[in-house]
Amino acid sequence: MLAFGNVADVLGLPVKEVGARSPFGLISLIEDGLPIRALERVAHLLAPGDAQFKYRLIPKATYERRKTADRLSSDEGTRLARVWSLALDVWQSDEEARDFLFRPHAMIEDKRPIDVVILSEFGAEMVIDILGGLKYGSAA
């Protein structure tokens, strides 16, 4: 269901990095720690008008430490990149994908998908399941 090249694009990984276009290549890049610009890019794509949104993804003090090292931990930013990539695939528009992510949804107890994704990996999987249902035609 997930196009790894699309996730690499969302993270801002260079097109010439062929490894980022394969599942194991992307895993390797993530495990080595993505550059801080990947998180900044994801935050900007999701909430372009909110300069503070990145601090919802990681606390400000942690962000400053990561910025100094220019490396994220293996899970920072990737969960949202996966969800954003699939939301774009389903909705075919940044605005419609954002509308879906920032509007309460009945299948997750009227919580906003973005909040559920930020909360945990399990929450991200719930939102990915909803998006998969929308993409492939099951109830969502």
Automatic annotation (TrEMBL):
Q: Tell me where in this chain the Antitoxin Xre/MbcA/ParS-like toxin-binding domain is found.
A: 87-137
- Molecular function via GO: DNA binding
Q: Write down the InterPro entries for this protein, in alphabetical order.
A: Antitox_Xre, Xre-like_HTH, Xre/MbcA/ParS-like_toxin-bd
Q: Indicate the segments forming the Antitoxin Xre-like helix-turn-helix domain, all copies.
A: 26-83
Name of the protein in question = Putative toxin-antitoxin system antitoxin component, TIGR02293 family
- Biological source species: Neomesorhizobium albiziae
